[in-house]
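Table S5 (text form). Sequence records supplied for joint modeling of the two-component complex.
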Amino acid sequence: MNGTTPLVEISMGIDAFASEWLHCDRISSYLARMVSHSRTDSLLYANLLSSALNELLETAFAHHGPDGNFCCRVSRAGESDVIELDLPCDEQALSFYRAAADRLGQPDLAAAYHAALFAPEAADPHLGLLEVAVDYRARITILPEQGNRLKLAAEMVLEGAAA
Amino acid sequence: MSVDRSYQASFNENNQEFVIAGKLRPQNAAEIKPLADALARSLAQVRGTVYLNVKRLARLNNVAFRAIASVVTQVCGTRPDLRVEVVTSSVMGWSTRKFQPLAERLPNVTVNEYDKDFYPGQSYLEEGGFIPILRNQTKLTWHHEKHLLPRHGLRPGMTMADVCCGIGDFAVLARKEFSPASIIALDHSRTSLDYARKVAADFGITGIEYVYGDASEMVLEDNQFDFVTCRHSLQVFDRPELILRELFRICKPGGRVYITNEKNSHCLGEPRAESIQWTYNEVARLWADYKMDIELGPKSRRYMLDAGFEDIRVDSFMVTNLDGDPQGFADIIQSWENVYAGEMARDRGDPPEFLARFRQGFQDHIHAALHPKGYAGWPIWAASGRKPT
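The corresponding structure-token record, covering 552 residues in total, follows.
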């Protein structure tokens, strides 16, 4: 992203990433720890960043195209950190992310998030993205790219964001 | 596919408390069903108020949250008499905000951010007023401790944690004198940490990471420090054994934990010894009323043995008015009077005649410290133990 300094990036085949659920936890914990050292309270920051990043990774784990490279990058601009997921997308996944972008553009996201959080039946597939937008006040952008790929970016200021 | 079992869940019938700790990031509801079932069974047994303790739950995804929320919602729907108190921690950052919507949906659920209740007298010690005390105290105790620390195992290049670091001055002194590889300095007072960070920034001090945390429930991982210090702090907690358990946990096998504590009733001075003695006996009673043990120093050996440490080493030393500037010693005593008599005894509801006599003992101690022929002392016990390999 423009104006940000890349801090760390993990790249692998999407099939490798999606072969193991624990990758979401491992990657989010590792990256959060790596980029939090220079924050005022590194433990608290890593906790918050890991929680937000894990929700994004779990979303990507469930919704992606079949082949291609998967990349998770964290960049920084002052107090903001930007998480970028770059992933292959087939038509079904693109449709999922288009619908997500529409919902994230709606007013009263908090009400939508709380409704999804307590939905009695199956989990709302956009729940993780809604949570990151509401609880972590992230500005999320979802941009389809050439070659059946998609870039999802979440920009957030977590310092001082503890509840 | 591997299932992550890095969480612990337990139910204490006597406390009506269901505790979940660790990390809960399951892929699907089936993975978390054993925990959800255990929670449902526990809630079915209780009456009145039940505590859902998540203060050491470091990670939680939405799959797990929904499973927990579903059980609580079902039970609360059929048991309007039941109160569910979710106990979160400010240390985790996300948990209070995550569980709050549950309380907003269900009238019999509340969310309480734990911490204050655990430390009954700590608000006196955490905020503002105690910073001058801490600054002066460290200056005078360092005079003794810098000679003791090598005997207790501190060496250059070690990874070190200073738990309950206060305003961070001990960490700074240890860094300069012993050159540890790194220091994590943890405290539960944001005021103190802000002060510590500002001092570090102003003086260009590096290699110390100041973090917010709860000494009894630290987010730090097991077995990661060669040397763990916790000074003048076990005496502040009503359950020091819980803190020691945490210090033990984060210490590497073969590493050492170093603690210092006081026995305030042994403070002494000449002249006016009797008045001084009376006041410090009352200090011990006052702290006990706030469920803190300012007499803990000589009990250190027992606490460390009970916590599982070996090779216990204990030293005691007397900080006196002859250690440096007597005014520095007198300033500490004045700070004690301000907090103990001016705040704690007053808030306990002590009558004016008691407060006057109580204050007089501090003033007599100051008099002894500044008297050209006087002697004033404040005894401290330093103890350390090795974590078995």
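Note: The mean pLDDT of chain B is 90.
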